[in-house]
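Intended use. Records like the one below are meant for learning the mapping from a protein sequence to its folded structure. Do not use them to infer anything beyond what is encoded.
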Amino acid sequence: MFEVLVFVYENYWRGDACPELGQLGRKLSAAGFELEDIQQALSWLDELNLASHKTELIDISQAKREQHTESAQSMRVYSVAEQDHLGSACLGFINFLASADVLSPHMREIVMDRAMAIPGNPIHLDDLKIIVLMVYWSIGLEPDALILDELCDDADRVAH
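Structure written out for the chain above:
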């Protein structure tokens, strides 16, 4: 499935440039991807679209009110299921991105949601990096060049 997500990311730089899921499925099939991988990726992308749309709505509504930021003393506590599923390497990477202020609390929650939807315990760090890229992609943001380099350090999968 991650090969499909990488293909989508590389061929449709922004989420709003991506065709509807039915048409995308046909393009992926024509590109030679397995039907099962396509179906998993399309389902995952559909849920990503829903989650990122909700985030945009939250951000718009917050813009109308006084901006509330996360307190410097606040801390995201991960459930046992999240700890087991993501493992220490992935959780450490998420915390690194959040502490570098390149992963907002809303984006972090989308990453967590989409990571928890991936089978396997723990998920691989390279797979988490693809998830983070896809969250940026779905919201229409381009990561900082240094962060993009960090997310795309696996030369076998992402060619940016």
